[in-house]
From TrEMBL:
GO terms for molecular function: calcium-activated cation channel activity. It comes from Vitis vinifera. Residues 213-404 form the CSC1/OSCA1-like 7TM region domain. This is CSC1-like protein. The chain crosses the membrane at residues 136-156, 233-252, 264-284, 359-384, 390-409. InterPro entries: Csc1-like, CSC1/OSCA1-like_7TM, CSC1/OSCA1-like_cyt. Coiled coil: none annotated. GO terms for cellular component: membrane. Keywords: Calcium, Ion channel, Ion transport, Membrane, Transmembrane, Transmembrane helix, Transport.
């Protein structure tokens, strides 16, 4: 009997293979992108070197090539050490793309060519030798964003601990007093305001022991729904910031750029939303205990997991109710279209559009929900029904969008199939 992970992988592999068989043959499936092409020793050109190299090593599969040029100056086109090499079969193209062509690791670098409309042409002009430095800078920037984002996450988790919030944030106590006084004001009749003014001093003195029902309602709202709502507001801008960082990594296609952004956002969510949410509930009182007694850190983490079950339950509910409803309505994009049509696009003919769901924003949050479900399946089984409802709701929303997109778009991007493997990889690791 096969393991569950291998069985699930085989099912997804069969679906992807069926998808590739259903679509028509595309030129990108027979083409390989070659970078860092050396100059020919005889003719001092990269094109001659490409023809000689692939004619020698792939005599039966090689078909043709096309060099890339820098068209900044049309009078003097500059030949780039980048070429698209076409093969006679998909097997030959896959073999050339997955093989190391030269003992030097920075020469004759091959990979499967992206679709023509998916190519980022500006990044092809960047030398492959600079890509590790760019990736390092992107990693540092993403790490700094993850670290500094801990400030609002810790503040939000402090709201969940209302007793600690009253200690560290005095306006919270004032809010409690306002709610307390309001209930006593509506309890007495207007003619008895003098009695209220005398009685209020004693009530304010003993408000810790005498907690009216309105205070309990306020506390349930503040500690329950408010942290998740504020956290969702902060996290909404993170995928777009990560996408801006991924654009600096020099990816050759838009799909690879979004896949990189998906991984960055997922690790960001795991670090900030999951682990930091577990620890930040006790950070206000025990900020130095983990450093002074590191051997007690696993026990603190285990106790924190069970203590934050209510927060993650509310987080999934907030994500399901607000996130999916916003995905259907898309108010931000509609507002942007309204502003654009009434400002600089006024008077221009409107082009019919249909906004698709951004994979770099959707897939990391779904992967995070799967992670939360796997962690709390044993600790808090009550969370599983909410998680199942979350996935059913998301299925109804996204299937409707996918069907609409397939109806409107006649040629779907094949690169979208690779996004489904990200969820499996994140769930496995």
């Amino acid at each position: 009997m096969q393991p569950f992970d291998l069985q699930e992988y085989n099912e997804i592999l069969a679906k992807r293979t069926q998808q590739l068989q259903n679509i028509r043959h595309q030129p990108a499936q027979f083409t390989v992108l070659v970078r860092e092409i050396p100059l020919c020793s005889e003719h001092k050109t990269s094109g001659c070197s490409v023809d000689h190299f692939f004619s020698k090593h792939y005599p039966y599969a090689y078909h043709s090539y096309q060099m890339l040029y820098d068209a900044t100056d049309l009078e003097q086109l500059l030949e780039l050490p980048v070429a698209f090499v076409t093969f006679k079969s998909r097997w030959g193209a896959a073999l050339a793309a997955q093989s190391q062509q030269h003992p030097h690791p920075l020469l004759w670098i091959t990979e499967m060519a992206p679709e023509p409309r998916d190519v980022l042409w500006k990044n092809l002009a960047t030398s492959y030798r600079y890509l590790p430095l760019q990736n390092l800078l992107v990693f540092i920037a993403a790490s700094l964003l993850t670290i500094f984002f801990a400030i609002p996450v810790t503040a939000v988790q402090g709201i969940a601990k209302f007793e600690k919030l009253r200690k560290w944030f005095p306006p919270a106590m004032a809010l409690q007093l306002m709610c307390f006084n309001f209930q006593w004001y509506i309890f007495f009749e207007p003619s008895t305001q003098d009695v209220l003014s005398v009685f209020r001093g004693k009530c304010l003195h003993n408000y810790h022991n005498l907690k009216p029902q309105s205070y309990q309602e306020l506390r349930s709202v503040v500690t329950g729904y408010l942290p998740s709502a504020v956290l969702k507001g902060f996290i909404y801008i993170v995928p777009f910031a990560m996408l801006g960082m991924a654009k600096l990594a020099g990816c050759v296609s838009g799909s690879k750029q979004e896949i990189k952004c998906c991984s960055m956002v997922f690790y960001f969510l795991v670090g900030n939303v999951f682990f930091l949410s577990l620890l930040s509930g006790s950070l206000l009182d025990e900020i130095g205990e983990s450093f002074s007694n590191p051997k007690n850190f696993p026990s603190h983490l285990a106790s924190a997991v069970s203590a934050q079950a209510d927060f993650f339950m509310t987080y999934i509910l907030t994500d399901g109710l607000s996130g999916f409803s916003l995905e259907v309505l898309q108010p931000g994009l509609l507002i942007w279209d309204f502003i654009k049509s009434h400002t600089y696009s006024r008077g221009k003919e409107k082009v019919p559009y249909l906004y698709s769901m951004p994979y770099f924003r959707v897939i990391p949050f779904v992967s995070l929900s799967i992670l939360i479900g796997m962690v709390y399946a044993v600790v808090a089984p009550l969370l599983l029904p909410f998680l199942i409802g979350y996935f059913f709701f998301g299925y109804a929303v996204y299937v409707n969008q996918v069907y609409t997109l397939n109806f409107v778009l006649s040629n779907e991007n094949v690169a979208q199939d690779f996004f489904y493997s990200i969820i499996v990889v994140n769930a496995y690791y």
